[in-house]
């Protein structure tokens, strides 16, 4: 088990390294650099040269990479070019904001979707099943940014139930903060429900076909016991994998939801820093996202056997 | 003859309508999707402009049709590119194994973890923000998924008897691959390609929404949705119709994908 | 029911104070970059920082320079030495008196490369002007000696992107020399900066205002009735609109397209305010196609300027083809003469230019508060109407800026930041392309004229030069300037006197009239 974990961690390292180098090179290939962007149309050659030098952009690429990576290994992701703030605390702050929304949405979605999916599978092809699958398919076909926009339009502007202005942190005002995240959470929740219901249903169906279920039934166990003791637990396995994937991917896809609701999260940070060519922030964000993605998948892989004893870490 | 499943019918119908609109959008639309007409700005849906007009007086219906053409074309090319590249990669890696496989898969995983946004922007900015840049960027972003699936299939098949038999018979590796392994990839690939069509459509819309996709004035559903935000209070129809188009198309693709999966890959039924 | 929920939580959001609480909330479309004047800045940063700090001189409403911390400014007969007499009784936020020593300290700090002051190269000789020495003959006098006479020295000191060359107290920096927070002489003190969320400034009770009975640009009466101003970061235009209507925000710049709707809102008033930004179409005169002056003139003739400007500003703006802003003291009848809309003439010019329908690409971007894209779309339509094969290429701002800096374009829809003095305005786009590829107008005689206008101070003489420059510009058409900035700002009816200047909100003149 430990060997498996270590092996997986080791395999992640080259991935992260490749990512680091590719990101570094790629963003510098993009036309436009932070110095000229900061000075805008007021740039004259002298101040441009000054700024480039101060930002270390006048050195050769390998040197710049060496400096940056050396710092990364010491846990220092550098400072943002636009705000001079250290990158790691900035990324962590923003991550925490995004993560809160994502976790809450996925938690609720899982709590509702998994039982729904299991029931749908159990009563396969019944009206309930078709209704659930139909709803799920519709939900996952709606793009999150449109769904968010519709919610904003309805609940924010037309009915005025919820506030439209950006974001308030929990530390300042918990009640207000709650209001601000209701709509983004709802948007993600609805979308993920669609995905998870189908997933849960599919894996339950798989499991219900299996021999040991027939065996359990033959043994005389009641349907509900079969369902909850065996099928549910095993439906959770692949669903659990998907949750890991969902969490990882959401970190990338959440940018659109954050844009619609003007939430200062990690997705927005990434998009904004790309537009601003804020190299240290882009690099820091991506490295961090890749890291989280790898870690989440690792945890999911390690916990898989807990849910599905048939799968041994190979 | 057994009737096809209801989701195949519904899905197929929706996708059919979309493709028809796309074809039509490329050839004929009620109004010129690019022509500006300030006199007709921000008209609500009515007898002349069936779905209204936008802030430049352009007919929304015509733009939606033209956008369908663009989106379908981009998605089609992207999926083709991703499937081609991914299959080549997956077959090669799965067949060869060893260190080559490990290195290729390391790159593959790195690419998988890469948020599409950065890849898209990077490539688009270097190449130039246009349709082909997006096809390249998204194609590259989705190649790893294809590679994984194909590699998985190859791995599970290469030890099977008929492959061994082929080798024993003296057939070259390439022949064996082409004759025996590739055909077995078709089923999972078809299923994946169908889903991917939807993902690409969604990605392109999302990128356009963020300001990174196909640039205006050429319409795509995503950039129409993005532009609608400034006028959402005065002209709510501008925000409704493009989103509806995306949703319906994705619904159709998902239903069709389901039906295909049921038919081609019974093991994955219900997913 | 819905209103009560919102109201109940609304009360939790706004700092509820009894009676007419003199606090105002201003919306910014992005967080400020830093509180260090003239160092890490953008327009939003300048707007906020200039509430807290002041320089020796500052801009008046009409763009001319007036003394601020200085009571008077006099020049030596050879024009090279400026003597600033400081006002008496001015205090810093920490209670210390303003003395010539503080001016010296601030100046030396700005000229230190480690400070990274954006405008250093404008004063150390690398861009022409050099300040040779700065001295403090007594506690309330400062002299600055230049290497040459210049009409633009005071202008450059007053520039908002230089942080107004603000005079700061030593305690603004920490012991190790790094920046702490601005301890200046302005009407507001630094309160709190919650990054990405808001900046609050509180009233400086010991503020000494320059003479005047009302605000005048960044000078004039600046004593504030407010106890606090909060600059809230609201990046999204539609959110700003909603916030104005709901009362969460008191003052904000709004989109032209939002004006009709906001005018209908019961608690909001909208006004239009000019700025000296220039909205233009740039040409690359080194391009094989656009190098032909007749083609450029044809394009100018094909555009209906009033219609273009009305369309991009939703009816709010007025056309100006001159590099001299309409609000400038130098804007006269010569400057008012612009391009005539003449499609027939345009087609004639096209024939003379030998234009055969080759595509011309117009580069534009889709940033929110600039007309770049909309102007390009309209120009394209107008150009196509006379037979010019115009295409639009939309780039993301950073990429477009890169192309601008390299001169790599045929035609570009571009907006210049405000340069209040006309000489500086012309200089923005004129110069040697070999040394500075971003310059649009490369002509030796033009540059000589601009240099002359930069050196002499006599307004009548300068007016003559600007008139000549304008005539030459209309003839050569290296670019088409079509309008100055005209921005729509909305404010809550309960807040009066918060008018912006040059696109920057000013809170010191504001007061809450009802609550």
Question: What do you see in this structure?
Answer:
The complex is a heterotrimer of chains A (314), B (271) and C (515). With 314 residues, chain A is mostly helical. The termini of chain A are close together. Chain A has twelve helices and no strands. The model of chain B has no long low-confidence stretch (mean pLDDT 80). The longest helix of chain B has 38 residues. Chain B has one domain: MetI-like fold (Orthogonal Bundle). Chain B has 271 residues and is mostly helical. Chain B is 72% helix and 0% strand. Chain C has 515 residues and is α+β, with helices and mostly antiparallel strands. In chain C, helix 7 packs antiparallel against helix 10 and helix 8 runs antiparallel to helix 11. The longest helix of chain C has 18 residues. The two termini of chain C are 22 Å apart. Chains in contact: A-B, A-C, B-C. Chains A and C meet through helix 2, helix 3 and helix 8 of A and helix 1, helix 5, helix 12 and strand 17 of C.
Jot down its keywords.
heterotrimer; B: 271 residues; mainly alpha; MetI-like fold; 9 helices; C: 515 residues; alpha+beta; 4-stranded mixed β-sheet; 15 helices; 29% helix; disordered N terminus
Radius of gyration of chain B: 22 Å
Low-confidence stretches of chain C: 1-19
User: What is the alpha-carbon Rg of chain C in Å?
Assistant: 24 Å
Integer tally of domains of chain B: 1
Oligomer: heterotrimer
Instruction: Please report the number of helical segments of chain B.
Output: 9
Instruction: Estimate the helix proportion of chain C, in percent.
Output: 25-40%
By DSSP (H or I, 4+ residues per run), the number of helices of chain C equals 15
Order of helices and strands of chain B: HHHHHHHHH
CATH A-level architecture of chain B: Orthogonal Bundle
Biggest sheet layout of chain C: 6 strands, mixed
The percent range for strand residues of chain B is: under 5%
What's the helix and strand layout?
The complex is a heterotrimer of chains A (314), B (271) and C (515).
Chain A: H1 2-29, H2 34-39, H3 45-54, H4 61-73, H5 87-122, H6 127-141, H7 144-158, H8 174-209, H9 211-219, H10 223-260, H11 266-275, H12 279-307
Helix pairs in contact in A: 1-12, 5-6, 5-8, 5-10, 6-8, 7-8, 7-10, 8-10, 10-11, 10-12, 11-12
Chain B: H1 6-27, H2 60-96, H3 98-113, H4 116-127, H5 131-157, H6 161-168, H7 173-210, H8 221-228, H9 237-264
Helix pairs in contact in B: 1-2, 1-9, 2-3, 2-5, 2-7, 3-5, 4-5, 5-7, 6-7, 7-8, 7-9, 8-9
Chain C: H1 2-13, E1 23-28, H2 43-49, E2 57-59, E3 65-67, E4 70-75, E5 81-86, H3 100-111, E6 131-138, E7 141-146, H4 153-158, E8 188-194, E9 198-203, E10 215-216, E11 219-220, E12 228-233, H5 237-246, E13 251-254, H6 259-264, E14 268-283, H7 293-302, H8 305-312, H9 333-336, H10 343-353, E15 360-364, H11 372-385, E16 390-394, H12 397-406, E17 411-416, H13 422-429, H14 444-455, H15 459-476, E18 479-492, E19 495-496, E20 511-512
Parallel strand pairs in C: 1-12, 15-16, 15-17
Antiparallel strand pairs in C: 2-3, 4-5, 5-7, 6-7, 8-9, 9-12, 10-11, 13-18, 14-17, 14-18, 19-20
Helix pairs in contact in C: 7-10, 8-11, 13-14, 14-15
């Amino acid at each position: 088990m430990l060997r498996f974990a270590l092996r997986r961690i080791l395999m992640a390292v080259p991935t992260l390294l490749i990512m680091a180098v590719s990101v570094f090179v790629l963003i510098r290939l993009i036309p436009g650099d932070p110095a000229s962007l900061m000075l805008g149309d007021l740039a004259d050659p002298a101040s441009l040269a000054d700024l480039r030098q101060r930002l270390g952009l006048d050195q050769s690429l390998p040197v710049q990479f060496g400096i940056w990576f050396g710092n990364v290994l010491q846990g220092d992701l550098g400072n943002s070019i636009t705000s001079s703030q250290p990158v790691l605390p900035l990324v962590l702050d923003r991550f925490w904001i995004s993560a809160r929304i994502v976790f809450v949405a996925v938690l609720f979605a899982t709590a509702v979707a998994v039982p729904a999916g299991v029931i749908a599978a159990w009563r396969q092809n019944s009206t309930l099943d078709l209704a659930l699958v139909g709803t799920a398919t519709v939900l996952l076909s709606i793009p999150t940014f449109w769904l968010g926009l519709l919610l904003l339009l309805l609940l924010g502007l037309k009915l005025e139930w919820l506030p439209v202005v950006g974001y308030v942190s929990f530390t300042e005002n918990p009640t207000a903060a709650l209001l601000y995240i209701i709509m983004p959470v709802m948007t993600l929740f609805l979308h993920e429900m669609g995905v998870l219901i189908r997933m849960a249903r599919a894996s339950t169906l798989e499991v219900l076909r299996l021999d040991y279920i027939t065996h359990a039934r033959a043994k005389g166990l009641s349907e509900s016991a079969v369902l909850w003791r065996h099928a549910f637990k095993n439906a959770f396995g692949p669903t659990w994998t998907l949750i890991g994937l969902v969490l990882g991917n959401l970190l990338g896809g959440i940018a659109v939801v954050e844009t619609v609701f003007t939430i200062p999260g990690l997705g927005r940070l990434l998009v904004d820093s790309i537009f601003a060519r804020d190299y240290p922030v882009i690099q820091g964000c991506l490295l961090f996202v890749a890291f989280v993605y790898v870690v989440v998948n690792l945890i999911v892989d390690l916990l898989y056997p807990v849910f599905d004893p048939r799968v041994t870490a190979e | 003859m057994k009737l096809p499943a209801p989701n195949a019918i519904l899905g197929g119908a929706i996708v059919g309508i979309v493709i028809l609109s796309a074809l039509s959008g490329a050839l004929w639309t009620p109004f010129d999707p690019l022509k500006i007409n300030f006199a007709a700005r921000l008209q609500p849906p009515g007898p002349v402009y069936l779905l209204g007009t936008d802030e430049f007086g352009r007919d929304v219906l015509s733009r939606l049709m033209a956008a369908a053409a663009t989106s379908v074309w981009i998605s089609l090319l992207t999926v083709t590119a991703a499937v081609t590249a991914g299959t080549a990669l997956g077959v090669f890696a799965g067949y060869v194994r060893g260190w080559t496989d490990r290195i290729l898969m390391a790159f593959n995983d790195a690419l998988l973890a890469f948020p599409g946004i950065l890849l898209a922007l990077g490539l688009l900015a270097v190449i130039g923000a246009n349709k082909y840049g997006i096809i390249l960027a998204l194609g590259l972003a989705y190649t790893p998924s294809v590679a994984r699936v194909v590699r998985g299939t190859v791995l599970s098949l290469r030890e099977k008897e008929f492959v061994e038999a082929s080798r024993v018979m003296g057939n070259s590796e390439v022949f064996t691959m082409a004759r025996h392994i590739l055909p077995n990839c078709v089923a999972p690939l078809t299923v994946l390609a169908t889903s991917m069509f939807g993902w690409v459509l969604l990605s392109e819309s999302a990128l356009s929404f963020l300001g990174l996709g196909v640039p205006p004035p050429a319409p795509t559903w995503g950039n129409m949705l993005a532009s609608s935000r400034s006028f959402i209070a005065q002209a709510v129809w501008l925000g409704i119709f493009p989103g509806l188009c995306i949703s319906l198309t994705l619904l159709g693709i998902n239903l069709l994908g389901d039906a295909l999966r049921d038919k081609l890959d019974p093991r994955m039924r219900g997913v | 029911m819905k209103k009560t929920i919102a109201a109940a939580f609304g009360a939790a959001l706004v700092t509820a104070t009894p009676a007419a609480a003199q606090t105002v909330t201003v919306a910014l479309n992005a967080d400020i970059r830093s509180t260090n004047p003239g160092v890490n800045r953008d327009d939003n940063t300048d707007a906020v920082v200039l509430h807290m700090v002041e320089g020796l001189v500052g801009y008046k409403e009409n763009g001319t320079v007036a003394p601020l911390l200085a009571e008077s400014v006099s020049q030596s007969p050879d024009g090279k030495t400026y003597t600033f007499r400081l006002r008496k009784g001015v205090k810093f936020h920490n209670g210390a008196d303003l003395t010539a020593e503080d001016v010296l300290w601030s100046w030396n700090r700005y000229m230190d490369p480690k400070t990274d002051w954006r405008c250093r190269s404008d004063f150390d000789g690398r861009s022409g002007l050099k300040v040779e020495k700065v001295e403090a003959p007594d506690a309330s006098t400062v002299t600055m000696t230049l290497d040459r006479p210049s009409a633009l020295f005071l202008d450059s000191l007053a520039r908002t992107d230089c942080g107004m060359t603000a005079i700061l107290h030593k305690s603004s920096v920490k012991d190790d020399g790094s920046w702490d927070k601005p301890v200046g002489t302005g009407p507001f003190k630094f309160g709190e900066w919650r990054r990405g969320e808001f900046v609050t400034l509180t009233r400086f009770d010991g503020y000494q205002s320059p003479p005047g009975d009302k605000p005048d640009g960044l000078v004039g009466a600046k004593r504030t009735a407010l106890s606090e101003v909060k600059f809230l970061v609201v990046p999204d235009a539609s959110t700003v609109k909603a916030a104005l209507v709901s009362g969460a925000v008191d003052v904000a710049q709004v989109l032209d397209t939002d004006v009709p709707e906001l005018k209908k809102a019961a608690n909001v008033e909208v006004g239009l305010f000019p700025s000296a930004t220039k909205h233009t179409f740039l040409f690359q005169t080194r391009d094989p196609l656009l190098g032909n002056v007749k083609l450029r003139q044809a394009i100018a003739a094909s555009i209906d300027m009033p219609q273009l400007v009305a369309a991009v500003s939703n009816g709010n703006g007025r056309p100006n083809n001159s590099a001299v802003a309409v609000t400038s003291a130098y804007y006269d009848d010569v400057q008012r003469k612009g391009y005539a809309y003449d499609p027939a003439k345009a087609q004639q010019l096209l024939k003379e230019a030998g234009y055969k329908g080759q595509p011309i690409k117009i580069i534009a971007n889709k940033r929110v508060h600039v007309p770049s894209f909309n102007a390009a779309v309209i120009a394209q339509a107008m150009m196509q109407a006379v037979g010019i094969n115009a295409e639009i290429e939309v780039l993301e701002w950073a990429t477009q800026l890169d192309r601008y800096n390299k001169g790599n374009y045929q035609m570009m829809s571009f907006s210049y930041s405000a340069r209040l003095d006309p000489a500086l305005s012309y200089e923005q786009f004129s110069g040697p392309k070999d040394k500075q590829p971003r310059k649009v107008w490369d002509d030796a005689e033009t540059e000589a004229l601009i240099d002359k206008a930069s050196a002499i101070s006599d307004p009548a003489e300068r007016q003559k030069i600007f008139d000549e420059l304008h005539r030459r510009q209309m003839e050569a058409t290296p670019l088409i300037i079509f309008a100055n900035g005209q921005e729509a700002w909305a404010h809550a009816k309960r807040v009066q006197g918060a008018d912006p200047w040059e696109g920057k909100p000013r809170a010191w003149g504001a007061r809450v009239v009802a609550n």
